[in-house]
Each structure stands twice: as structure tokens, then as C-alpha cells.
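Person: Please comment on this record:
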Amino acid sequence: MKWWNEREQKDKIEIIEKFKIMSNEKFEIWLLNECKWKNEIKKDDIIYIRFSIENLIIINKDNEEKQVK
């Protein structure tokens, strides 16, 4: 997704941390109404943002598990 790919690494970290601690509903509210990108994000974007974050979390977890072995 273009919006996600345009974010800097520190911004992605902030978004991922919010994603991890918030319910889906609160995360959506935060994105649409509270975060600094609220004017750039549309409700339809949220599913793609979540998908990107979930995949990053899975990839990072897999990489961590491989390093432990």
C-alpha cells in the first residue's frame, strides 16, 4: 500500500506499537481521528494498513525464531 510505504521507519514503529496495544476499533479511531496522518487516511485504507502490520509482525517473529535456532 502506497501510504504505508511512504512512512518513515520511526512512524511505522509508532503505528505498530499502537496496533499492538489497541483493540481494532480503537486503532481505527486513532488512525482516523487522532494520529498525525488522520487527514491522509480514509476508512477504506485501514484494512490495508492492518494487513501490512500483521504481515510485518509475522515476518519479524519468523526471523526472530530463525535466529534463536
Q: What stands out?
A: Residues 55 and 61 are 10 Å apart (CA to CA). The longest helix spans residues 46-68. The mean pLDDT is 90. The radius of gyration is 13 Å.
